Amino acid sequence: MSKRFGIVIDGTASLPDDLARAHDIRWLPLYVILNEERFIAGRDLSTADFYERIKAKGVITETSQPTMQDCLDAYESVVRDGYREVVVITIATELSGTYSVATTTAHQLDRERARVEVVDSRSVAGGIALIATALARLRDRGGSFEDAVALAHGLAGTVHILAATDTLEQLRRSGRVSNAAALFGSLLSVKPILKVADGVVSPVDRVRTRDKAVLRLKELIAQTTGEGGRIHACVLHTNDPERARTLGEWVQERYHCVEYFMAEAGPVIGARTGPGMIGLCWYAAQDVPA
């Protein structure tokens, strides 16, 4: 008898390695390009090495979606380990072509060998990770592949993401925000507050200092979710663990965190936001069975 469904997330997801191993959540590789040198994020280039490399002046960071062969290799690896049904959760289509490549590859598989369903998370980073852990809990309870696909679609677009970043320059260069939006945060020492909603990254406020950015981030989180609410939460950061830890302590004091973890966003996210970003990804516990 084959195992219950497998879970695959793409390389933009923010999920600590120990949680990925504990839940048997697999990875679909994405690429980071530094001055035309190409790396598989997390495999050829660690997060620590990435941030060390981009300290140098003139380093241009780019990212690239997986190839069809990358997707096929990932699917085949899961199937070899006994899974015959696989749910793949990807970054929003507005932010990457990963969903398209992953879906095209899935359609080419022999359905008698494996059924692969690709779900657009309508999110990124911790949003993908929180959907994946929800599927893992469902699997632990004996949930079916069909239940998992329905749950993934149900959670897609429901995860809130608010983040404070030092600059919008990397996002502007990538085309993820417009030149006009980038100007929103272009003044000296202005720190943009970003929201990710239904696949769109947009600036929602700006403050003068990093300390004020954390305070404003908390205010916006509080406006979205009332104190004491039951939430599933992921605090994420790009090479800024101390500020992220402080934000996480506030989140755990203010809310009933049914699930909580802190994750460093990997090189793919760091290539777009740069270092110094912290944020919270969360959804209300009532949106999914505990």
Kindly describe this structure:
The longest helix has 15 residues, at 126-140. The chain is built from eleven helices and 13 strands. Helix 3 crosses helix 4. It starts with 5 loop residues before the first strand and ends in a 6-residue tail after the last strand. The protein has helices at residues 17-23, 47-53, 68-80, 98-107, 126-140, 145-155, 169-174, 179-183, 210-224, 241-254, 267-273, and strands at residues 6-10, 25-28, 31-34, 37-40, 61-64, 85-90, 115-120, 160-164, 191-197, 200-207, 230-237, 256-264, 278-284. The strands form three sheets. It has a six-stranded mixed sheet with strand order 10-9-8-13-11-12, sandwiched between helices. A four-stranded parallel sheet has the order 2-1-6-7, with helices on both faces. The chain has 290 residues and is an alpha/beta fold. The chain has two domains: 6-30 and 65-155, 3-Layer(aba) Sandwich (Rossmann fold); 160-287, Hypothetical Protein Tm841, Chain: A,domain 3. The protein is globular, with a radius of gyration of 18 Å.
Distance between the termini: 27 Å
Class by SSE composition = alpha/beta
Give the spatial strand order of the biggest sheet: 10-9-8-13-11-12
Order of helices and strands: EHEEEHEHEHEHHEHHEEHEHEHE
As a percent range, the share of strand residues is 25-35%
Rg to the nearest angstrom? 18 Å
Poorly predicted regions:
179-185
Keywords for this entry:
11 helices, 38% helix, 290 residues, alpha/beta, 4-stranded parallel sheet, single chain, 2 domains, Rossmann fold
